[in-house]
Amino acid sequence: MIHPTAIIDPSCELANDVRVGAYAIIGPDVRIDSGTEIGPHAVIKGPTRIGKHNRIFQFASVGEDPQDKKYHGEVTYLDIGDRNVIREYVTIHRGTVQDQGITRIGDDNLLMAYTHVAHDCVIGSHVIMANAASLAGHVRVDDYAILGGFSLVHQFCKIGQHSFSAMGSVITRDILPYVMVGGCPTKPHGINTVGLERQGFNPESIRQIRKAYKTVYKSRLKLDEAIQQLDEMTSETPEIQKMVDFLKQTGRSIIR
Fold first, then answer.
1. Which of 16, 93, 94, 244 is the most exposed place for a label (fewest CB within 10 A)?
2. How does pLDDT run across 67-81, given as a tens digit for each residue?
3. C-alpha Rg value of the chain to the nearest Å
4. CA atoms of 91 and 235, how far apart (whole Å)
5. 149 is catalytic
């Protein structure tokens, strides 16, 4: 299961069936659960916990120190869930004490080649980051969001669930759930209809989400007024509650 050229710190906790490829390096304070495969030349640094049935491809760098000048060697963490695919040259950094001290990645995510997850980011589950998409520090990405190739996300931004960013998007404000953004400068372009259909949203729910989108983006209402109208729609379409909650918690304001 472990290639003889791999370098593994004696303090690591590896399940019996973990596979480790040639020349991989696993440092101290790393715990890897069953069914996970570490590719050749991958580097994993702790304190890091990696769950079950993940696949980390060759040359990935997982759990390295944060790229933050305020970081001075404090003990911080990385936590990765189950069934994630982390492709070639992905970089994932641990947290900082200026935040919660931990970077978190949920389950069933696909991080394509050259993607970057900076310190203190929180990624939900079923997220796709296409090639070279990059998150600055303290970014939150909710479930089922998709970041197109070369998307760049500014620090502290929040990416709502089931949202979609087109290739090359420069995201400096929050993206509302279900919304597609793209262009230069990045602008909203309707809702992620195809993604919602693939995830089993029924036609009436999609119609109501589209109506909610128009309320926020097309009605020329102030944001507080739009939130009030969306609140009234939630009794018939519970999915819109996600948009209401997101709008009430947005810190950097939304792309609008």
1. 16
2. 999 999 999 999 999
3. 20
4. 42
5. no
Q: Are 41 and 23 within 8 A, CB to CB?
A: yes
Is 119 a known active-site residue?
Answer: yes
Active-site residue, selected from the candidate residues 79, 107, 120, 174: 120
Please report where in the chains the tokens 């998307």 appear, as a residue: 151
pLDDT digits (tens, 9 = 90+) for 74-119: 999 999 999 999 999 999 999 999 999 999 999 999 999 999 999 9
| 80 three-class SS | strand
| Residue closest to 196 by CA, chosen among 182, 188, 210, 206 | 206
Query: Which tokens belong to 250?
Result: 């947005």
Please state the length of the chain.
256
41 labelled catalytic = no
Catalytic choice (81, 95, 124, 137): 137
Q: Which two tokens stand for residue 255?
A: 């792309």
Parallel, antiparallel, or unpaired for β 179-182 and 187-191? antiparallel
Of 93, 116, 119, 126, catalytic: 119
